[in-house]
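Bench log. Compound arrived from synthesis this morning; before running ITC I wanted a structural hypothesis for how 5-hydroxymethyl-3,4-dihydroxypiperidine sits in the protein. Inputs:
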Amino acid sequence: MTSSQTSSAAETTAALGEEQGAAVRFPEDFTWGASTASFQIEGSTTADGRGPSIWDTFSATPGKVLNGDTGEPAVDHYHRYPEDIELARGLGLGAYRFSIAWPRVLPKGSGTANQAGLDFYRRLIDTVLEAGMEPWPTLYHWDLPQALEDAGGWPARDTAYRFAEFAEVVRDALGDRITHWTTLNEPWCSAFLGYADGAHAPGRNEPAAALAATHHLLLGHGLAAAVLREGQGGASRRVGIVLNQTTVRPHSTDPVDISAVRRADGVRNRIFTGPLFQGAYPVDVMADLAHISDFAFVRDGDLSVISAPLDHLGINYYKPECVAASADGIDPEYIESGGDGSAYVGCDDLVFVRRGLPRTDIGWEIDATGLYDVITRLAAECPGVPLYIAENGAAYDDEVSADGGVHDRDRVAYIDTHLRAVHEAMGTGAPVKGYFVWSLLDNFEWAWGYSKRFGVIHVDYTTQRRRIKDSGHWYARVAGSGELPPVGA
Ligand code: IFM
């Protein structure tokens, strides 16, 4: 590779390399946690009054999810949460991040709350607290009530108001037990994978709708954040959002590739950070997308609701992207097909390129310098806001060995390298306050079904038996000591 961006990545790698091999210490008050999400682990999709979500509908549609997998029974966390929280406690974690299924609480998305659904989350939260961990709920991790999709979904403005209604119900029922709240997880996926690319629920291929969905997700975030800050205890609540920003690198130094990066970065990153941190959609992004949407969905006052200051910002990071203006001269083997390309609305002419780096078993290239770049960029864009790595981890085809263990050395190496990148970014002054590994448990990996395992705890999907993987034992040592051991130790 000959790109300038690649050489900047190499420089960063060299910088990270200064720490490779050495023990690395994190601050005493650093939060060590693990993340999960409701639809991916709970199962019991019709129990106790839960209504259908878009993922129930989507996964029941032939051809949408690999092997026809659905959210049933997932890893039966709905019943096995005491065991799962006990396992997390045993790893010595300080925090457990999970999401609250909107259709369990408001089966039709709006209206009468389902007490049994709220009771489940109260029991879960109490169990987390009793285990000495801090519960970190996310209000929306993609399981939109189907009734709201039937009414238009996120492209419809009303959904943002229904989300604020959901936030109010949850706040009133559970607000006395929670400090750190997250409104949305990865709104890019909800908007662009769900409404443009169609690989995620609800599976629509409507670029203009994806842009409207983006705005209404952000508006929903702003409205819900305000609701969470109101009422008794509101002043002590910390409210944030989790974004999956990534570094977009150019395939070469050719100005056309640099321009390709500007466009892809616009619809992946800046379409969110502009409204959130500057109270405006970037002018160049709106110009790039003018042939798709006139952004008339933005109404007076929306942007000030969206840009209310955050108490914390979550970063989910797995891989960087690399784009080229055209496929000319690129080995076809390196051209991504079936990747996220069609989710980059307005970028259909661009080519997403692999750089020939090692990949995890979901096919994602491993490059921790991308995480360093995302952290340092966001630290500069929203100065002073505490940052949390809300998800980071790797999918590998784990097997249970004859000795009963799961020896997932590749996952340990992935997490270790990325934690070193976090530490390096902190060395530049980035206020990273915690790290949540994705994921506590193997689970339903969306369109991949159960075929991709991200957990630091293995789940046998036939028996539901849990086994802590080597990565789980390793992560427990890191969390317990606050220190990354020297590589190879
Ligand atoms: O499993 C997902 C999670 O739900 C959201 N972030 C990325 C993970 C891995 O794909």
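What the model suggests: Residues 1-18 have pLDDT under 50 and may be disordered. Residues 37, 40, 186, 316, 391, 438, 445, 454 surround 5-hydroxymethyl-3,4-dihydroxypiperidine (CB under 6 Å).
ITC booked for Thursday regardless.
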